C-alpha cells in the first residue's frame, strides 16, 4: 500500500515499467513462429473469451453462474451463449437430474484450441522467467501471489488513476 506521495510516485513508475514488460513479452509471444491465433477466436469479445476459459476450467456451468462470474445480465449471457453455440464453440446439454436446466460445455474443437493456448502461454511465461536465476523467479511469483492475496482477501479498493494516465 502506498503511504505517502513519494511511494505513490514510485508505485506509478513501477506500474508503468511492469506494463511495458508485460506488453513487450506479449508482443514477443505473439511473434513466435509456433503461436497461431485460431480464426474461431479472432473476433470474440473479452467476455466471450473469459466465458470460454471458464467453461474450460468448469465444464457444465449454467448460464446464471456465467452471468454472475462475468458480472453481466442474464440476457447478455443468453445472447453470447447463442452466438458461441452458433459458432460451434459451445454446446448446451440438459442437466441429468433436472432436464429444465441446461449446462454449458465447450465443443471438442474449442477444448483443443484453449488447451493449446494455455500450453503456449505457459511456455511463454516459462521462457520469460527462465532467463532469470531461480531465486529471482521465486521472488517474482511469490510477490505477485502475495499482492493478489492481499487484494482479494482484504477487499482493498485500488486508488483511482489519473485521467490522462488511464486513457493512455
Q: Helices and strands in order, then pairings?
A:
Layout: H1 5-31, H2 46-57, E1 61-62, H3 63-70, H4 74-86, E2 90-94, E3 102-106, H5 108-130, H6 134-153, H7 163-167
Antiparallel strand pairs: 1-3, 2-3
Helix pairs in contact: 3-4
Care to give the gist of this entry?
This protein is mainly α and 168 residues long. It has seven helices and three strands, in the order H-H-E-H-H-E-E-H-H-H.
Provide an overview of this structure:
Helices cover 64% and strands 7% of the residues. With 168 residues, the chain is mostly helical. It has a domain of 70 residues: Arc Repressor Mutant, subunit A (Orthogonal Bundle). The protein has a three-stranded antiparallel beta sheet. Helix 3 crosses helix 4. The longest helix is centred in the N-terminal third of the chain and has 27 residues. It is globular.
Average residue pLDDT? 83
Helix/strand/pairing class, anyone? Answer: mainly alpha
Distance from first to last alpha carbon: 23 Å
CATH architecture of the domain at 38-107: Orthogonal Bundle
Quaternary structure of the protein: single chain
User: What is the helical fraction, as a range of percent?
Assistant: 55-70%
Biggest β-sheet description: 3 strands, antiparallel
Give the overall shape.
Answer: globular
pLDDT < 50 stretches: 161-168
The arrangement of helices and strands along the chain is: HHEHHEEHHH
Amino acid at each position: 500500500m502506498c503511504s505517502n506521495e513519494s511511494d505513490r510516485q514510485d508505485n506509478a513508475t513501477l506500474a508503468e515499467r511492469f506494463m511495458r514488460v508485460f506488453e513487450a513479452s506479449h508482443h514477443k509471444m505473439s511473434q513466435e513462429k509456433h503461436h497461431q491465433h485460431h480464426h474461431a477466436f479472432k473476433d470474440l469479445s473479452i467476455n466471450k473469451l473469459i466465458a470460454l476459459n471458464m467453461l474450460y476450467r468448469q465444464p457444465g456451468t449454467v448460464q446464471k453462474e456465467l452471468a454472475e462470474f462475468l458480472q453481466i445480465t442474464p440476457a447478455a449471457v443468453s445472447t453470447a451463449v447463442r452466438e458461441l453455440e452458433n459458432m460451434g464453440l459451445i454446446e448446451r446439454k440438459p442437466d441429468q437430474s433436472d432436464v429444465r436446466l441446461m449446462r454449458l460445455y465447450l465443443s471438442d474443437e474449442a477444448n483443443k484450441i484453449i488447451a493449446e493456448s494455455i500450453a503456449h502461454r505457459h511456455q511463454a511465461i516459462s521462457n520469460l522467467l527462465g532467463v532469470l536465476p531461480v531465486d529471482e523467479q521465486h521472488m517474482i511469483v511469490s510477490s505477485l501471489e502475495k499482492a493478489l492475496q492481499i487484494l482479494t482477501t482484504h477487499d482493498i479498493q485500488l486508488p483511482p488513476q489519473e485521467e490522462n494516465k488511464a486513457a493512455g
